């Protein structure tokens, strides 16, 4: 009788955005891995997801909706490379204690980012995994939208996108309005998103738009937990 192959335990780096959400969807379709935790760096000063500026409460609701335990790694603001490396070393130690063998990322094509991640994990016993690597980002965006991914643009670089882009739904209208040269998945840092529904979500995470804040060369749209639709 043939034995069942062992599934390797994976921690997925989770930004709260569409690429990490789609990475989870892709990994769940595989029979050789099991995602046992979502790892998110959280700004200690503002208690929000680093860069995306999503409130911790929304992050926790999102993790509950996808049904995977959330690990948070607190980082200071501002955060140096040394600070980040120290925070990640704590996570790596926990992962190894809990039998994790793989750390997965939603990166698409930035070679320097991938090299940095591989360098940070070298010698730790954790294998870096990039399930979306090399995908055409236009086709990938269409695939996500076809599958029902719903996301809101929470952060933009105003040197690359107009201010009114922040807070918009990440949908086909948004993609059609992107300036020439802008990546449909925002891989060059044009924008970041918060996913509130999609494949693998047990329920949508309700959100309400808040104010727009401009700081440190970026613009953010605050999102607040919204009311759930009444059920009959």
Structural write-up:
By secondary structure, this protein is an alpha/beta fold. It has a single domain, classed as Rossmann fold, CATH 3.40.50. It is 28% helix and 27% strand. The protein contains six helices and ten strands. The strands form two sheets. Strands 1, 2, 3, 4, 5 and 6 form a six-stranded mixed β-sheet that branches. Strands 8-7-10-9 form a four-stranded antiparallel β-sheet, with helices on one face. The protein is globular, with a radius of gyration of 18 Å. The N and C termini lie far apart (50 Å). The model has no long low-confidence stretch (mean pLDDT 94).
Summing up helix and strand content along with how strands pair, one would put the structural category as alpha/beta
Radius of gyration: 18 Å
For the secondary structure, the number of strands is: 10
CATH topology: Rossmann fold
Residues in helix, %: 25-40%
β-strand amount? 25-35%
Q: Mind summarizing the main beta sheet?
A: 6 strands, mixed
CATH architecture: 3-Layer(aba) Sandwich
As residue ranges, the low-confidence spans are: none
Q: By CATH's scheme, which homologous superfamily applies? A: HUPs
Number of folding domains? Answer: 1
Distance N to C terminus = 50 Å
Principal-axes geometry comes out as globular
């Amino acid at each position: 009788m043939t034995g069942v192959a062992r599934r390797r335990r994976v921690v997925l780096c989770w930004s709260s955005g569409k690429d990490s959400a789609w990475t989870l969807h892709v990994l769940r379709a595989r029979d050789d891995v099991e995602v046992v935790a979502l790892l998110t760096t959280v700004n200690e000063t503002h208690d929000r997801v680093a860069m995306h500026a999503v409130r911790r409460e929304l992050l926790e609701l999102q993790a509950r909706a996808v049904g995977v335990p959330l690990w948070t790694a607190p980082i200071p603001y501002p955060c140096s490379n040394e600070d980040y490396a120290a925070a990640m070393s704590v996570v790596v130690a926990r992962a190894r204690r809990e039998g994790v063998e793989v750390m997965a990322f939603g990166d698409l094509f930035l070679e320097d980012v991938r090299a940095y991640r591989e360098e940070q994990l070298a010698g730790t016993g954790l294998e870096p995994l990039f399930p979306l690597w090399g995908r055409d980002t236009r086709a990938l965006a269409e695939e996500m939208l076809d599958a029902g991914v719903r996301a809101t643009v929470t952060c933009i670089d105003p040197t690359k996108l107009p201010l009114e882009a922040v807070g918009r739904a990440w949908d086909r209208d948004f993609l059609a309005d992107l300036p020439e040269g802008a990546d449909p998945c925002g891989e060059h840092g044009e924008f970041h998103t918060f996913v509130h529904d999609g494949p693998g979500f047990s329920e949508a995470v309700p959100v309400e738009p808040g104010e727009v804040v401009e700081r440190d060369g970026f613009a953010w749209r605050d999102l607040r937990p919204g009311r759930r639709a009444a059920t009959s």
